[in-house]
Amino acid sequence: MLSKTVQEALNDQVFMEAQSSQAYLAMASWAEIQPGLKGVTQFFFRHSEEERQHMLKLIHYINERGGFAVVPALAQPVLTFVSLKKAFEQLMEHELKVSSSINDLVDLCLKEKDYATHNFLQWYVNEQIEEERLARECNDKLEMIGDDKSGLYLFDRDIMTMDAQ
Predict the structure, then answer these.
(1) pTM for this prediction
(2) Which residue has the higher pLDDT, 159 or 161?
(3) Residue 161: its pLDDT value, please?
């Protein structure tokens, strides 16, 4: 059985995962209308769906443990970006925020001696290591590319397989 404190913190994480999904969906929609960003568009759509799956995993866990998962109302995400580089900088900032939130949840579970939830959250800890690595790699590549259109072309092509590595 989840404590009230852990249930509320998990529901806060449900909100964060839902917001992530919405933010990446907005990035995908923006990228889709930019010329030549088919790979980036697919990348953001995939990541939106992945974050949605993270949210659903939390919802199921909360309910299975005798809690009540709350489907959150969401704020409007940022819809447009001045550049692809800015969109990926926002992705990195967002992933760091999610990692911090997961770490706070893990800490709370240890304080509450909720070892089952602590164990459940280890999947998210490992997932965030991968998410941060991928976001950092994308940002590093975009930094190297700068304003080089041929580099951007290669980035767009390569990003379709980057998260599969």
Answers:
(1) 0.94
(2) 159
(3) 87
Q: Is 51 annotated as a binding residue?
A: yes
Please count the other Cβ atoms lying within 10 Å of the Cβ belonging to residue 14: 22
50 is in an annotated binding site: no
Q: Whole-angstrom distance between the N-terminal and C-terminal Cα of the chain?
A: 37
**What domains are defined for the chain?**
4-162 (1.20.1260.10)
> SS3 breakdown of the chain: % helix, strand, coil, rounded to 5?
80, 0, 20
Beta carbons within 8 Å of 52's beta carbon, 6+ residues apart? 17, 18, 21
Residue 68: both structure tokens together: 């009540």
60 is in an annotated binding site: no
User: What would the pLDDT profile of 116-144 be if each residue is shown by its tens digit?
Assistant: 999 999 999 999 999 999 999 999 999 99
- Determine whether the annotation assigns residue 95 to a binding site: yes
Classify residue 76 by its DSSP letter.
P
CA distances from residue 65 to 47, 113, 116, 134, 159 in whole angstroms, order as listed: 27, 15, 10, 32, 38
Query: Is 118 within any annotated ligand binding site?
Result: no
Reported as a pLDDT band with limits 50, 70 and 90, residue 163 is: low
